[in-house]
Amino acid sequence: MALQLYGAPLSPYVAKIMIQIAAKGLDIPIVSPPGGTGSDEYKKLNPTGKVPALDVNGTILPESAAIQAYLENTQAGKSLMPNDFLESAGVIATSQIADLYIGENLGALFGQMNPKTRSDDIVKSRLDGLMKGIARLNAVIAPGPYAQGGTMTLADCTIAPLLFYVTRIIPMFGGGDPLADASNVAAYWEAIQRDNHVAGVLEDMGVALAKMQAG
Ligand SMILES: N[C@@H](CCC(=O)N[C@@H](CS)C(=O)NCC(=O)O)C(=O)O
């Protein structure tokens, strides 16, 4: 089966698939979307224009949660989903809480990085939303070493790259420690960075972010 992942180094949604690929020991090439994310050229392949997208023998699968599920169901390597249906649904729920209530707000804040074009109202409402998202995650996540059940799951692939940005972006907008009132998330964040597969991908993200900030 020929697989190829369209990706970009700074995307937390791409990083979640890269952690999954690393943890399962898969060999899937990562390529830049032709013309760039959001370009007309790339939209001919993937109508959403977003990364990640998985090319499966010429069929393009968008959306990171769908890609996670596809790779989990079709590829060999370490299982990242519990066998128990209820535990497995819990992993999906925790991933969704992180994606919807943290990831969506982070995405909006990325668009407000430039102080010259920034809307204070958008920043305020998205920072409020992000803090509520962190509180929601705090209510469902284990304090490490992994998000659920003491072993690596797809939830860890999703959450770690989002926390990478949470801990960097809120201070950039003048906020304090975003995890100060979220002790489970704070302990989890300390622990998950010690997983080798997670650490490798987060390190690459750090390098790409430093390069972007240096202009
Ligand atoms: N819900 C999507 C979100 C993906 C996403 O927002 N990707 C961003 C990069 S972090 C992107 O490609 N943005 C380009 C665009 O919106 O045109 C997923 O889970 O895959």
Give the SSE layout.
Elements: E1 3-6, H1 12-24, E2 30-31, H2 40-45, E3 53-56, E4 59-62, H3 64-74, H4 85-110, H5 120-140, H6 154-172, H7 183-192, H8 196-213
The chain binds glutathione.
Write down the domain tally.
2
Which architecture of the largest domain per CATH?
Up-down Bundle
Helix content range: 55-70%
Write out the distinct hetero groups bound to the structure.
Answer: glutathione
How would you characterize the overall build of this protein?
The protein has 215 residues and is of the alpha+beta class. It folds into two domains: 3-74, Glutaredoxin (3-Layer(aba) Sandwich); 85-213, Glutathione S-transferase Yfyf (Class Pi), Chain A, domain 2. Helix content is 58%, strand content 7%. It contains eight helices and four strands. The protein has helices spanning 12-24, 40-45, 64-74, 85-110, 120-140, 154-172, 183-192, 196-213; strands at residues 3-6, 30-31, 53-56, 59-62. It has a four-stranded mixed sheet with strand order 2-1-3-4, covered by helices on one side. α4 (85-110) runs antiparallel to α5 (120-140). It binds glutathione. Glutathione (GSH) binds next to α3.
Based on the model shown, name its key terms.
215 residues; alpha+beta; Glutaredoxin; 2 domains; four-stranded mixed beta sheet; binds glutathione
Give the structure's gist in a few sentences.
With 215 residues, this protein is α+β, with helices and mostly antiparallel strands.
